[in-house]
Structures are given as structure tokens and as C-alpha cells.
Amino acid sequence: MRTARLLRSSTFRLAVLYMALFGASVAVLLTFIYWSTAGYMALQTDDTIEAEITGLAERYGLSGLDGLIRSIDERLSRKPNGDAVYLLTDDQLTPLIGNLDRWPRVARDGDGWLNFNLEQASNDVEVTHRARARPFTLRGGYRLLVGRDMHELDATRSLIVRAIAWGLAITVMMALAGGIMLSRSTMHRLEAINETSRRIMRGDLSLRIPTRSTDDDFDQLADNLNGMLDTIEQLMEDVRRVTDNVAHDLRTPLTRLRNRLEQLKNDDTIDAGTVEAALGDADGLLMTFNALLRIASIESGRRRAAFKSIALDDVVRDVTELYEPLAEQKGQTLEVSVSDSVRVHGDRDLLFQAFANLLDNAIKYTPRGGAIRVSLEDSSTGPRIRIVDSGPGIPEQSRDQVFKRFFRLEQSRHTPGNGLGLSLVEAVARLHKADIQLGGQSGLDVALAFPKAA
Amino acid sequence: MRILVIEDDKETLDYLVKGLVESGHTVDRAGDGKEGLFFALESNYDVLVVDRMLPALDGLSLIQALRSSGKTTPVLILSALGEVDDRVAGLHAGGDDYLVKPFAFSELLARLEALTRRREAGTADTSLKVGDLELDLLSRAVRRAGRMIRLQPREFSLLEFLMRHVNQVVTRTMLLEGVWNYHFDPQTNVIDVHVSRLRSKIDRGFDRPLLHTVRGAGYMLSGEAS
Predict the structure, then answer these.
(1) What confidence tier does B84 reach under pLDDT thresholds 50, 70, 90?
(2) Chain A contacts of B102, Cβ < 8 Å?
């Protein structure tokens, strides 16, 4: 099963493909070498034979038949004679001298050569060699045959072929072995990733893919997957917490609503006040749900598609204008300084909502007679909205938590609110890639820093 | 008013029809898009209430079909989808107003009345008059019983909106959309503060108040004695 997987693995397939390509090119190269070597050897043999015939024919011209016979005889007795084949016959093909007992009975090939087989006994074994010879007719009807026993050439050729075959086989085997080794190590690491993934899918979300800290591509893959798992775990944790909180925070108003309805059922006359209070509870619940759904839909990021260039200064002015009477009612001073024509790419309604939530909080938590300062400026890093109030502020240790859904500070539990206002602000800020900065020593100093327009 | 309600959820349909009948309207009902379109084309209604998700034919296609056949009956779309793009798509398809579920019945009623009035008052006025209160749109001057009242620009728009919807209930959301032009969900009743400011300017010192609070719904400007 492991082998089957090895054979299926893409690394192994790649190795095989590489092996095939490499083997093929090696084969082509060796074939070329073979053809040029063998061809050159054959050509050289042919040239030697031609030269010998010319030499012998000249000898015949100079010193006649006797001289020729002597010359052939002398060459035949020379050792080694390079497997030379000679035969001189008269016009009746009766042999006069030579190491062939008869004229070979084969037809000439296209270039005028005779290719035939030589039967020779060597070490008492009858072997057949290939021979190649050139016939020549001398004056007086004598016929001369000069050739070569080709067995050495053939032996050399087969030696080359064998060497090539071995070379190829070794190449293929080494490539195969390399491929297997390569794919096994790849598979091993992939298997580690797969195994961890399977275990995570079975429910252990805290597991992480092991890395070798070599920062190679596998480590990078593992790091990315681990990062993804961190995000998923964080999201799951958020979902779980939100679900818990929803269940917990909605139980109180639901119970209250239920009690009121029960009270109405038991009463003989319907008390308008109780009905109104019940409606108020239901409205509050609906508002909480709407706020939750709204945050969820903002977080989904779908609204980014409808982003436009927005006059942020107008939005800030509109919000402060809307809330100014509320601050006045509480005897608070609302100081506003807004730079002109500050634009961001965004969603007008959402920015209004986010900013309204912040200002609403400032007015709500700043005591009577306090001061709130609102400013918008276009700094070098981008537009920046800032609201500074003289309220109780947010303790340092709670600053990360206030953006979590349903989170409420202990001291603000008695004020109306659902603990979703800042969550929504954070969702809107994130949608706009804006930074929320919380600061302030005595009061709260909250800033929304938008990225600089591209 | 003759109202056609097209809604597939039986409970919601019954609730809407009951409420509208109790408010003195004649109501027809349809449970799916095809039936609804048939009714809407057959007779003349003053206003249609159309749920966005309907069996057989969805709400937006229904409105498009209605408009392409030349019917201009105002349509209020009801939807569980509250996104801005959904709202835009709804209005783009030919809807006249858009209300997100869940909604208060008073909100629906106020919006329906606003829709039908809007048709009647399609003309461009240069001045508005409610009782002894006069608003001049050109000089932007407001007078009550001949006495000049100074208003901030936003108060002026607020009063103009209320006067254009005279004798109708205007909800807080309608004011936010109509006067401030934002679709948003105020945490506190910030609108009430604006209305009470306006009220102090137009009603203080006069025997008969014009600007009334409608409990559980919103506000109403009315010249008649209530």
C-alpha cells in the first residue's frame, strides 16, 4: 500500500518523467556516437581495401602475374595480416593464390562490393564471420579479390553497443533510485502534513504541523497552514464565545419578557404599562439581534464592493450636528474641529454609524458638565478622527476586551447598552482598514486612523 | 386605502392583514409571487406590500414585471435582507420603499401612508402650511401666527419633512433617512432631542401644540385639534 502510494505520488511521477527524458537524451547521444564510430571504422576499412587493390594492380602492371602472386603471398604470410582476404583467379575463376578456396558466390552490391560469409575453424569450433571484399579484373582476365574479415569490426561494434546498453541501464537505474529516494523524502514530509490535517479534522484543533526550522518550502507551507489554523481556532473561539454570550446576555431580557407576559395572562385587565414594557423588551432583543447581524454582515466584507469616495469631514460634521443637542442637554461642552475636504474610500452609512457609536459613548459616559473634543485631521499617514472625553475612560487592562461582543465594563453595567457598540465600530474600522487607538489618562482618547488614500 | 399584501409566511400575512384592516384599510392577500402579480395587474391598488422572498416568483421580479406592464402603483418591499446593496437592488427594481424585517407595525403603517401621500403631493410647492404655521421654501422663513421663528438649517429640514407628511405618523427611522439622509441605527433616542428642540421653537408660547408624539411609533405634525 505504501509502495502503491509511492508510485502514485507526484514527485515519483516527476522523477520517472525526468528519468525517461534523461534516458532518451542519453540514448540519442550514444546512438549518434555509435553511428559515427562504426561508420568511420567501416569507411576506413573500405579505403584500405581500395588502396590495396590499387597497389596490387600497379604491381601486376609492373612485374606481371608472378610479381603479383609473390606480392600476395608475401602479404598473406605477414603476421598479423589484419584479417586480410585475398584471392587471385584466372578468367575461369580457378584460384591461383589466396586464402579463399573459391570465388564467393554472391552478387555485387550497389557500390560494387561483395559481402559474404567466411567459415573458419578456430579452436576447433566452426564460426562464421562476415567478410567484405572488392573484386577487380586485371588485364588478361585475371580476377583479383581483396577484402577483410569483418569479425574484429563486428566485435568492436557489439562492444560499443553493449557499453551503450549498460550505460543506459545504469542511467535509468540511478534515475529511478534517485526518484524513489527523492519522492520518499517528499512523501514523508507530505505525510506528516496529511496526518496532522486528518487529526485536526477529527477534532483536535490545537495540533500544529511540525516544521524542521530549515525555512524551506515545506516549512513555509507548514507555517502558512499553521497560521491558517491559528485564525480558524481564533474564529471558532470567537464564535463559541459569542454564542455563549448571546445565550447568556439574551436570557435576561427574554426572562423578563416572559415574566411580563405571564403577569398579563394572570391579570384580569390588561395593563397598558406592562404591555409597553413587554414590547420594549422585545424591541431591545430585536435591536440586539439586528446589531449582531449587522456586525456579522460587516465582517463578511461584502459591503466593500460598494465603497465610494466619501467626504469624511461631512460625515463627522453630520454626526456631531446630530449629537450636539444630546451633549447640550447633559450640559457638556462639545468642541469640534474638522479639517475641510478630507476624503476616504468607504461606506458613508457605516462610517456614520461607527462614529455615532463613539460619540454616543462619549456623551453617555462623560459626566454632566464634562467636555468632549472631536477632531478630524488629514495627517501625513492618513485621515484621523479623534474623540477625547472627560469621562471615566477605559482601564488599561480592559482596552483589548472592549471590542469583544457583549463585553461591558463593570462600572457601566447599569447604563443602557448591549455591549455591541464598540464591536460594531471595530468591524467598521477593520472593513475600512482603519486602526482604532485607545488612550487617555483620565478620560478616554479614542482615535480612528484611516490609511492614506492610494 | 386599498392595499395588496403579498407575503408567503402565513403568520406575518395574517398579522399584517389584521393590523391594516384594523387601521381602516381594505386589504387583499396573496401567498405567492404569481398570484400576487395577477392581483396587482387585475385591479387598482393604492399601494402594494411585497415580500422579497416569495415562492413561484420572487419579489423583485414581480415588481419588474409590474413596472414593465406600465403599472405605477407604489410598492413597499419587505425583506429580511437589510444590507445597503439589497436595499439599493430593491429600489432599483422599481420598489418605492424598503423595510427590513423585523419591523414595528407602526413603522410599516407610517411608511405606507407616506407612500400614498407622496403620490398625491407630487407637485413642487413653494410654501407649506399647517394650521397657523407657515414655511416658505424659497426664503426659508418660518412663521407661526405671523410671528417669525428662527430655525437652524437642520431644524428647518426637519420641520419641512414633518410638514410634508402632515397628519401622518413619522417614525424616527424615517426622519433619519429623510432629514439626515443616513441609514443607521441610533443607540439612543438622539432624534427625540432634535424634535423636542424643534417643538420648543414652534409650539412654545402657543395654546395649541402642532407637533405631537405618537407613543410607540414616532411623531405627527397636525393642524387639527387632537
Answers:
(1) low
(2) 286
Minimal Cα distance from A306: which residue of B? Answer: B85
Contact A163, A155 (CB under 8 A): no
How large is the average pLDDT for residues A443-451?
90
Question: Check: CATH 1.10.287.130 for A217-299?
Answer: yes
Contact A306 B85 (CB under 8 A): yes
Q: How many CB pairs under 8 A join A and B?
A: 62
- d(CA A26, CA A169) in angstroms, rounded, equals 11
For A347, the closest chain B residue by CA position comes to B84
Q: Which three cell numbers stand for residue B194?
A: 432634535
The answer to whether B66 touches B38, Cβ cutoff 8 Å, is no
Architecture of domain A306-449: 2-Layer Sandwich (3.30)
Three cell numbers at A201?
479534522
CB contact under 8 A, A279 and B216: yes
Last residue of a domain, one of B120, B146, B171: B120
Q: Which domain holds residue B147?
A: 127-221
Cell of A288: 440586539
What does the alpha-carbon distance between residue B156 and residue A283 come to, in Å, rounded to a whole number?
A: 30
Residue A245 has pLDDT above 80, yes or no: no
Chain B contacts of A356, Cβ < 8 Å?
184, 186-187, 190
pLDDT 10s digits, A300-342: 877 787 788 999 999 999 999 999 999 999 999 999 999 998 9
ipTM of this predicted structure:
0.74
* Number of Cβ within a 10 Å radius of residue A59: 16
pLDDT at B210: 92
CATH number at residue B31: 3.40.50.2300
B29 phi/psi in degrees, rounded to 5: -130, 150
Residue, of B85 and A109, whose pLDDT is higher: A109
**CATH class, range A2-164:** alpha beta
Report pLDDT digits (tens) over A204-215.
Answer: 888 888 888 888
Predicted local distance difference test score (pLDDT) of residue B226: 47
Q: Which residue in the set A287, A297, A421 is minimally distant from B83, CB to CB?
A: A297
| Closest to A45 in 3D by CA, of A165, A123, A148, A125 | A148
Residue of B nearest to A359 (CA): B187
* Top-confidence range, A116-130, A427-441, B182-196: A427-441
Taking the CA of residue A383 and the nearest CA in chain B, the distance in Å comes to 21
* B23 or A11, higher pLDDT: B23
Backbone Cα Rg of chain B: 19
Distance from CA of B189 to the nearest CA of A (A): 9
Q: How many alpha carbons fall within 13 Å on the CB side of residue A286?
A: 13
Same domain (yes/no): B8, B30: yes
How near does any CA of chain B get to the CA of A319, in Å?
9
Q: How many domains does the structure of chain B reveal?
A: 2
Inspect the interface and report whether the beta carbons of A290 and B185 lie closer than 8 Å. yes
Please report residues of A whose CB lies closer than 8 A to that of B83. 297, 302-303
Q: Could you read off the pLDDT of A94-103 as tens digits, one per residue?
A: 888 888 888 8
Question: Residue B190 and residue A357: Cβ atoms within 8 Å?
Answer: no
Task: Give me the pLDDT at residue A118, please.
Answer: 79
CB contact under 8 A, A349 and B183: yes
* Residues B106 and B31 occupy one common structural domain: yes
Same domain, B134 and B97: no
| Residue to substitute from A283, A292, A349, interface B, most B β-carbons within 10 A | A349
Q: Is residue B53 located within the same domain as residue B153?
A: no
In angstroms, what CA-CA distances link A12 with A7, A8, A149, B86?
A: 6, 7, 50, 52
Confirm whether B226 is domain-assigned: no
Residues of B in contact with A417 (CB under 8 A): 187
Tell me how far apart the terminal alpha carbons of chain A are, to the nearest angstrom. 56
Asked if B194 has any chain A CB less than 8 Å from its own CB, the reply is yes
B85 and B187 inside one domain: no
